[in-house]
Amino acid sequence: MANEELVALPVTKLSAMLKAKEVSPVELTEAYLERIERLDGDLHAYITVDAKGALAAAKQAEGELAKGSANGLLAGVPIAVKDQMDAKGLPTTMGTSFIKDVAGEDSTLVARLKDQGAILLGKLNLSEFAMGGNVVHPHGTPRNPWDRERQPGHSSSGSGIAVAASLAAAAIGEDTAGSIRIPASWCGVTGLRPTWGRFSRYRVASVSWSMDQAGPMTKTVEDCALVFQAIAGHDPKDATTSQAAVPSFQARDGLNGLRVAIVREAMESPALDAETKAGVEQAAKELEALGAAVTDISIPLFTNGGLISAAVTDADVAYVHRHLLREHAAEYDTPTRRRLMAGMLMPTELRDKALRFRVIMRRLVMEAFAQVDVLVTPTQSTPAPLISTNAGGFGSVEEVLRGFYGVRGATGPFNLAAVPALSVPCGFTKGGLPMGLQLAARPFDELTLFQTGHAYQERTSWHTRWPEL
User: Fold this and answer.
1) Of the residues 193, 214, 231, the one at which a domain ends
2) What was the pLDDT predicted at 154?
């Protein structure tokens, strides 16, 4: 098999080939490293590539597989992580020009990947401090593999690129208000924001302590479930992690008995693109054909989810940066600095109001789940926009609101409600850009999301299309 075909395979197939000794971890790692060397100078998925460390780990995995002692779920599989997560011996830059601290210890997520036999290829690009929206990227402007003039997604941009361009078999991103789901949608990959508390945040740099949650980005839902199983679960080093049992993936035979509802407000958003709307409506028909009972449901506060989410996040992240901003203000990108300063100036009554609205959003979402098992929305209102080179502000209140209805309009409600949400590819525009379908479920019911998304992918082929590079 040619390297181009090999690196495009999903994790589950690569894992089977590694165990059957049809390919060696060293050969596979070298194939990814060669592809990164050839393509990433243009795409800018990576900030740090650890070729030496990856090859050493691959040789160790090769020996363990040869002896039959490799028991990890990801044994020999090359994976990369967002440069928000510490990996011992590698710098954690947070996408900035002025932070280059070398980690003295692995984050729990990186440690678990290694414990499961994964090969760490390196650290992936991201928006400055994982906030989204910056214009200047010190480590290269991340570019969408489907159209290099377009954005790959906010915050976990490198993670989306790495999977879509086959620069890693899988990636770990982080999602505060959509930063896994947005690049998953715009890059045409699968991405999960798990239930808050599922993944450890030990030595993962913070944006908003009450909403940050790492998660897998992969080629398929089945891959996503495997990576989730490998690294989710309670961590004594992170008191916010849950002790809930981590499920192993089991496919359903159809979706008979599953109750699915399309969120009406998400489909009526003034920002929603006609092609995206049609793609989601067709996806709902596919779920119905699989046996699901599909209806629609109203969540009245839904369209304000992006705005509420931003208010909570910006107040949280402003606190995180209160000292750093004083010392390095001129080194921040203009939009990042402006957003942090606005967060610092937010009146207490406005933050309190946002927190009250968050409680209401959580209640409304949970009331919806009393009636159905899965909620459906577009992941993003539009396909990937052009890369912005303008650091200018907003011209009107209406312009601000349109922005919140668009980028975080459908993702915000679910991180506010602390429930799991999965983005899967659901089609392409006439211009050849991917579109994403978002599925959400009750807290700690990732298994239902995996089963629903997998059944959809078994019926459709959108997830098998990859950009020509």
Assistant:
1) 231
2) 85
pLDDT at 390 (0 to 100): 79
- Of 24, 179, 185, 381, which is the active-site residue? 179
Q: How far is 68 from 295, CA to CA, in rounded Å?
A: 50
Q: Is 179 a catalytic residue?
A: yes
Spot the catalytic one: 107, 127, 155, 269: 155
Is 174 found in the same domain as 51?
Answer: yes
Using DSSP, state whether 95 is helix, strand or coil: coil
The string of pLDDT tens digits covering residues 411-465 is 999 999 999 999 999 999 999 999 999 999 999 999 999 999 999 999 999 999 9
Residue 277 falls in the annotated catalytic set = no
Q: Is 155 a catalytic residue?
A: yes
The answer for residues whose C-beta is within 8 angstroms of residue 41's C-beta and 6 or more apart is none
Quote the number of domains for the chain: 2
- In a domain, residue 307? The reply is yes
Average pLDDT for 160-167:
98
Give me 274's structure tokens: 């006609």
Active-site position among 82, 114, 123, 219: 82
Q: Is residue 464 part of a domain?
A: no
Residues 275, 200, single domain; the answer is no
Q: Is residue 468 part of a domain?
A: no
- Classify residue 287: in a domain, yes or no: yes
